Amino acid sequence: MRVDLIQYTPDPEKVVAAAARLCYSADPVPDLLQHLEDEVVASFVRKLREMGHLSTFEHVSFQFSIDGVSRALSHQLVRHRIASYSQRSQRYVEEKGFEFVIPPSVKQNAESLGRFEKVMARLQEDYQELLSCVPAEDARYVLPNACTTSLMATFNARSLLNFFEHRTCMRAQWEIRSLAEKMLQLVRAVAPNLFSEAGPTCVTQGVCHQGKYSCGRLKSLKGKK
């Protein structure tokens, strides 16, 4: 898996702070941006986050390049609908010799790994044979969820906070949790105040919404206090 932050709104935290100030100022945004010091910006962002006034977070966006993830992951990712996605097409791009993701649980068991790789090899052959007699858009029906793909994804900051809340949770599926952790690391580097408190609710709010499916992390966190 490779994740890159390829583009984002310049001075994202200052933009958020200026948007918040605009609501209570007669000055235009360009003037507000010029008179915002770093300490003021950080204070504004923290206060907005603590109060839950996150509409101004929607003014800044972050664009990611995501490669080497499975189709199983991409099907989960697009459930986060307040975002924009572009994905490599299996209709127009032939997947000859496709690469695939192997789950950790499969790698840990020699018998499971052998069976998994055997299935992938057979699907490779079947896909190749189908390409010789049907269009790629039809041959792709035999391609597995394990087949790797590439995406570009663009989120605004508020949508990212929601994404991190759900996908850095230990109950999230392992591959998309790994993706979320990498994305969070990237955006924290360029907007630390926006994302300093991003993460699962057990960490950020001291509450777990998983009920009987809870991983138990909240109890361990409370035990450390």
Can you walk me through this structure?
- The chain is α+β, with helices and mostly antiparallel strands and 225 residues long.
- Helix content is 50%, strand content 14%.
- The chain contains 12 helices and 4 strands; from the N terminus they run E-H-H-H-E-H-E-H-H-H-E-H-H-H-H-H.
- The protein has helices at 12-22, 29-34, 38-51, 71-77, 104-107, 110-131, 136-139, 157-167, 174-190, 192-195, 201-204, 217-224; strands spanning 2-8, 61-70, 83-87, 148-156.
- The protein has a 4-stranded antiparallel β-sheet.
- Helix 1 (12-22) packs across helix 3.
- The radius of gyration is 22 Å and the shape is flat.
- 24% of the residues are buried.
Broad shape: flat
Structural class: alpha+beta
Alpha carbon gap, first and last residue: 35 Å
Number of DSSP-assigned strands = 4
Instruction: Figure out the total of helices.
Output: 12
Strand content: 5-15%
**Contiguous runs where pLDDT drops below 50 for at least 5 residues:** none
* Helix share bin: 40-55%
Please tell me the overall pLDDT: 92
The H-and-E topology, N to C, reads as: EHHHEHEHHHEHHHHH
Strand order of the largest sheet: 1-2-4-3
Q: For the report, how would you describe the main beta sheet?
A: 4 strands, antiparallel
Question: What's the quick description here?
Answer:
The chain is an alpha+beta fold and 225 residues long. It has helices at residues 12-22, 29-34, 38-51, 71-77, 104-107, 110-131, 136-139, 157-167, 174-190, 192-195, 201-204, 217-224, and strands at 2-8, 61-70, 83-87, 148-156.
